[in-house]
Design a protein that fits this description.
This protein has about 250 residues and is α/β, with parallel strands linked by helices. It is built from eight helices and 14 strands. It has a seven-stranded parallel beta sheet with strand order 2-1-3-4-5-9-14, with helices on both faces. A three-stranded mixed beta sheet has the order 6-7-11. Helix 1 packs across helix 6 and helix 3 runs parallel beside helix 4. The chain is globular and about 55 Å long.
Length: about 250
């Protein structure tokens, strides 16, 4: 089978490319630096020629409200139109658990627009809702930092390692379209503020985390069920401790 991975050189994309190629499939890693631009449409027709499955892992380069909405709307329309012309049989998009619950946030409003376009496209699809990636903990800490204090919501999260995400994306790509949303999540649930505090301590970072129920997450206020799922079709196996140990080992290798 031929797979085209939009955002194929990114964190999840590169891992998914590797997994599918190891299984003997033809995989195109499509991104602006390989000549494929979903915003302008450049290179899309050529990349999608003969494609069976398209996996959309692209993300907006800006989190500003207007820019995010424009990205997911324009990129989604361009990609789906090109897929219809080329006869793609399965469109897969990676989105976020809680997207529909976090509409205060411009980012999640953009993601919801993307999902609506997919559902209305007529192309068989699977939308994957994933919980937050462990690899983004440093960025989350930075987003809440003022001086040496990190203010973050104490709402629950269920973080998942990128390797577990890539495994799930690969298996879904090799399966029939669900024509629905499927959810994936990490194996452990904890408060966001507690998890980031653990991450900073393990990293030797002296910043202090203060739980703040009013702290925003991509512009949205969180409740305890905003970012977690009780209906995950697939749970990852990598715990925070295992993930952190692997990250530390790779940095010192």
């Amino acid at each position: 089978m031929k797979f085209v991975i939009i955002g194929g050189t990114g964190l999840i994309g590169s891992k998914t490319v590797e997994r599918l190629r190891k299984r003997g499939h033809d995989v195109v890693a499509a991104s602006p630096n390989t000549g494929v631009n979903v915003m302008t449409g450049e290179g899309l027709a050529e990349a999608l020629e003969g494609a069976d499955v398209v996996i959309d892992l692209a993300n907006s380069p800006s989190f500003e409200d207007k820019a995010v909405l424009e990205f997911f709307d324009t990129a989604g329309r361009n990609l789906l139109a090109a897929e219809r012309k080329s006869g793609v049989r399965h469109h897969i998009a990676l989105s976020v658990v809680g997207t529909e619950r976090l509409q205060e946030s411009g980012y999640f409003r953009g993601k919801l627009v993307q999902e609506k376009l997919i559902r209305e496209s007529g192309i068989p699809f699977t939308i994957i809702h994933s919980t937050q990636f462990m690899e983004f903990l440093a960025g989350i800490a930075q987003s809440g930092t003022v001086g040496q204090t990190v203010r973050l919501s104490p709402a629950y999260v269920q973080p998942i390692a990128s390797d577990d995400v890539a495994d799930a994306v690969t298996e879904i790509a090799l399966s029939a379209p669900a024509n629905a949303t499927v959810e994936i999540a990490g194996p452990e649930r904890s408060k966001l503020s507690d998890l980031v505090a653990r991450y900073l301590r393990a990293s030797g970072d002296a910043r202090t985390v203060e739980p703040d129920p009013e702290a925003r997450y991509f512009g949205a206020r969180l409740s305890d069920n905003s970012l977690v799922t009780d209906d995950a079709q697939r749970l990852g196996s990598i715990t925070f401790e295992q993930w952190f140990a692997a990250q530390k080992q790779s940095r010192t290798a």
